[in-house]
Amino acid sequence: MTFEPTPDQQAFIHQAVASGRYRNAEDAIREAMARWEEDERARFELLAALDDAEADILAGQYLDYKDETLPQLAEELKYEARALRDSKGR
């Protein structure tokens, strides 16, 4: 595969190498591709979760929160977010 970066991309890569952030252009491009792959995986996971949520709603499998139960929802979301963060080691 051949990849020809635009002049702006070449300058960006050159600056990253010159600053010492990367040893060479290949390392910079490799990391960019790894981040892109990670972003795409996260996007696909989000789309799958949205599909699951939509299916649950259509099947009537959801909770209807009211003003008085919103604090409970907030606590549940915080708990889930912390558990997710901790499972990813962050």
Key structural traits:
mainly alpha; 71% helix; 90 residues; single chain
Report on this model:
By secondary structure, this protein is mostly helical. It has one domain. 71% of the residues lie in helices and 0% in strands. The chain has 3 helices and no strands. It has helices at residues 7-18, 25-58, 70-87. The radius of gyration is 21 Å and the shape is elongated. The model has no long low-confidence stretch (mean pLDDT 94).
Task: Describe the protein's topology.
Elements: H1 7-18, H2 25-58, H3 70-87
Give helix % range.
over 70%
Low-confidence stretches: none
Tally the helices. 3
- Which structural class should the secondary elements be placed in? mainly alpha
How many separate structural domains?
1
Strand residue percentage: under 5%
Major sheet details:
none
Overall mean pLDDT score? Answer: 94
Q: How many strands appear in the DSSP assignment?
A: 0
How far is it from the N-terminal to the C-terminal residue, by CA? 35 Å
Q: What's the SSE pattern?
A: HHH
The Rg value, from CA coordinates, equals 21 Å
- The geometry reads as elongated
